[in-house]
Amino acid sequence: MEVSAKVNETKREPACPTCRAPRSPRFRPFCSARCADVDLQRWLQNRYAIPVGEDEERPDPTEIAEVARQRSQGLL
Ligand SMILES: [Zn+2]
Prior knowledge:
It is a single chain. This protein is mostly helical. 53% of the residues lie in helices and 0% in strands. It has one domain: Erythroid Transcription Factor GATA-1, Chain A (2-Layer Sandwich). Helix 2 packs antiparallel against helix 3. The longest helix is centred in the middle third of the chain and has 17 residues. Bound molecules: zinc ion. The site of zinc ion has 8 residues, from loops.
């Protein structure tokens, strides 16, 4: 059926999770470095927003920087 083929094609179109634009292979799953950065900031905020006990270990800034670097390079 031609119709089902068309629907399938539309649904399989990958989209940037930040702005829903078509993603770029270079910045996947995002469309651009900017959207990847936006997602990273959101991710970091969520991380800090999680209520933790007073004795909970604080995230290591060095670790966060490393994650940011890897994400900017598309390694994560
Ligand atoms: Zn985007």
